[in-house]
Amino acid sequence: MYDVVIIGAGVSGSAIARELSRYKVNVLVLEKNEDVCSGTSKANSGIVHAGHDATPGSLMAKLNVEGSQMMEELSKELDFAYERNGSMILCFDKKDFNKLQDLYDNGIKNGVKNMEIIYKDEIKKLEPNLTDNVYAALYSKDGGIVDPFGLNIAMAENAATNGVKFEFNAPVVKIEKGNGYWAIDTDKEIIKTKCIVNAAGVFADTIHNMVSKDKMEIIPRKGEYYLLDKSIGKFTNATIFQLPTAYGKGILITPTAHGNMLIGPTANDIPDKEGTNTTREGLDEVALKSMVSSEIVPLRKVITSFAGLRAHLKSHDFVIEEVEGCDGFFDAAGIESPGLTSSPAIGKMVGEMIQKKLHLEENPEFDGKRKDILNPKNLTEEEYEELIKEKPAYGHVICRCERVTEGEILDAIHRPLGAKSLDGIKRRTRAGSGRCQAGFCSPRVMEILSRELNIDQSEITKSGGDSKIIFGTDKDAYRRAN
Q1: Is residue 414 among the annotated active site residues?
Q2: CATH topology identical between 2-40+149-218+315-358 and 82-145+219-310
Q3: Which tens digit of pLDDT belongs to each residue from 140-170?
Q4: For 19, which of 9, 69, 347, 383 could close a Cys bridge (C-beta 3.0–4.6 Å)?
Q5: Which one of the listed residues 49, 52, 208, 312 is annotated catalytic?
């Protein structure tokens, strides 16, 4: 029997797993997909919000500020990409200035530091590519950008090296209460545990409703994005927001932690919890509304588009608590924006709740540090030459756009919770993330995966499940056609 089973290996579940690994406790993470960071956490803005948006006194406000303040030190401990680039919320009309002032006042109440209201001349000096129509902005120097894959994977890997077990392709189909334990049915096995943490993203209501008479409804809120090529450089230095509405913080323009530019997202409530397709209408909205902030957004440099889902609750606040009448069952639900920012604080909060519940002792062998995949681009020429002599695979470039080597891909496969699919490699190394969007490197990555995992290339998938790349041979296709 486990002490704790966490359902969901997204950013919240992985943060909770890492925090629990600080204690002497037997923890299992169940993930319905084939890898960590495969659901809500894989498609977002990669923004570390300063914390002036959430309603003062809300759990969302508290954990946003705490998570933001934890992020820099965490990035050093776990070796993922993070930059404090600052953020601006733009006001275009003097009559809306009171809304900007309200956000500033919110920030003060929430404990946000290093923010000020600035006006057109200073805005244009800092961000010359923004529209001349801007009137004022709330400038937060503590706003940041982070690699969302890197953050999620780093926390999960660190949890695993500290003893947390992960089981993939394990969807939860039923939960029942036993005599002093919970029984979780994954359709492959029954798992018994003292405590459950529900960190299932847009499916957290499904998990919650298996055990509680007080039903929960999570609304999938789709956000569509454009990703722009690195060749445009930093079109903006800071993350640029527009004054928010009831549906979110508007269309943003932001640099990413890896040197691209990102614009989006839309905010449309949909019924389909797997509805991550992009639409012509959504992408047109992204393009049109981004030009409110800048008329010269270089849309000709778009290299791909994508969509993600936010786990929206009507209460618009995080639900982090032990469910009433369900002893040992904890929700970490409704984790929408700023969930990525808040994740370290969410992990800490839930970890402390379960520590008190189970009276856990500290794990003296806990190691909170982790090293990312070695990136040869960070080495000097002399260091790189020595690396290639020792490990020749680092001299073999597989992804030309992002200059990813075979050595990096091998590391991604064989490290804790290693990659098993094209997307798994992409999230860990960026192979396939560049201008050609995997057109050149996919066959080579498939060859490496096939060799290292000792499986046929026909079994390689894009992202697990039914997403196979190869469906027969040319000869088979010819026979069917004739």
Answers
A1: no
A2: no
A3: 999 999 999 999 999 999 999 999 999 999 9
A4: 347
A5: 49
